[in-house]
Amino acid sequence: MNLSTFTRIFIGFVILILIVVGLVTIFSLKIVEDRYIGVLTSHLEDLALGIKPLVVQHFGGEPTRIDSIVKEMSSGIRARLTLVDAQGNVLADSDQPPEKVANQGMRPEIMKALSGHVGIAKSYNGTLEQDMLYVAVPVRKGGMVAGAIRSAMSFEELDVLLGEIRGRVAVIAISVAAIAIGVSFFISQTLTRPLKDLKAAATNISLGNLDTHVLLKGGTELKALADSFNCMVDEIRKLFEDMTARRSELGSVFASVEDGIVIISGDGKILRFNPAFAKIVDRDDIEGRYYWEVLQYPDLASLLNEAKATGAMESRTIKHSGRVYTVSARWLDETQGALLVFHDVTDAHRLARLKKELVENVSHELRTPLTALKGFLETLEDEVSASGKQYLEIAQRHAQRLTSLVNDLLTLSHLEDASAKLRCEIFDLRDLIEEVARSFEVGAKAKGLKLLVEKPEDAVVINADRLRLEQLLVNLLSNALQYTDEGSIMLRLEGSPNEATLIVSDTGIGISEEHLPHIFERFYVVDRSRSRIAGGTGLGLAIVKHIVLLHNGRIDVASKVGEGTTFKVGLPLGEKPLTRN
Fold this sequence. Notes:
The chain is an alpha+beta fold. Helices cover 52% and strands 21% of the residues. The chain contains 15 helices and 17 strands. It is rod-shaped.
């Protein structure tokens, strides 16, 4: 049963009042009854003691005379008097002739009195058919107990008196209970009224009325509770206003972002989106739909699964309605959903494509005149004078550098193409590093450098593009040879169950720390004067990085100025052809 707080308190008070009043009434009646019986017993004892002197004077005399004295003395009182001898024989009785009253020697009060003490007893009188109270006192003559005189009174009068007392006590008890219940009703209302006010205020707050306050007077704990409640409401209102302002700001930012933003639940339903996303999908009925109903791209599901597994931001590129978007996804642990951001990179892709086409076209257009230029320069070698040959050599060197630059640009453009494919084959990397190292033996010997090759005894079999990996090693060894004047160059191969590691280290001039983050950028040259002399293009390491990425590998570099540089290339092993990441 769902009872209100007021009802519970009031019923508790009523039950407590009824229990207390009932117990007080019962114990009061018991005390009054015991007290009245005690008074009545004293009265009967005093009555017996009062007639005792008269009885003693005629005790042992004429029985008829004693009986008449007893009857005469009991005429003015409402008590029965009985005189017995030492054997319990009735000598006189105020209500009956003595000869008609049986021997009283076995009565407890008589036995007590004949023993020299006051005897008191309550018992049922069959003759009178009612309860009686008996008090017997000893009668002494010549120092000996010669008999006993007994006074008795019916409980009928006592019952009448006690009935009156019980009635009065009941009236008093009912009155007290009624007054107490009324007071408890008032107290219950006084106690629960603030609670009702607090409940009403809480209901108003739940409905959004944050201006609600509870006003209580006095210094009770409920007043302190009301004050705390009001302070809490004020804090909630401030937090709500602040949250509303922040939500408005975030909503404005959310709506003004040019990138498409959409938040989806864990089961794939769209919870929230901005106008930019609605413009991308060109639909209005978006909210509440599953994302695959709005954007039907299988890559989105794998993107979300990857973001959930890694806990990091993951990205994919998709094409939609003739536009190209980079989609970034992050899993939201707090809501068990995901955030998707659609960034339009159509213009960037178009510029990249135009740049690629420009590089390819310019490179292809330059190849023909460069080939002709190199041919004419070679023809002029036999026709120029000795003084003019130095200029001819300079022209040939620059023509060769320009040719290398064009070739590297074409190579890099091909590697950056999303449609670029690897020509994978299964081979032993130990054979590859042996071949590449032999092609650099002459150059290393010419500079007085030691070319060291280390490889494991067991085969390191890889499924990869052999030509591209050869190009990678050639570029790394060329850089090592170019920037090392003394010491050694080492080419080392390390194998593990899942990865092959190619290491190219040298004892050259090294690379300062500020250059390390940029060395894989195209046309970035650490030492331009040395690169110009050696004919470098600044594209070698950019080509190396793209070859590594095409093989789903990794490349790390460590260097100290004056001590040398070490490149580590990790390539995954496997029988299946590698895929572009």
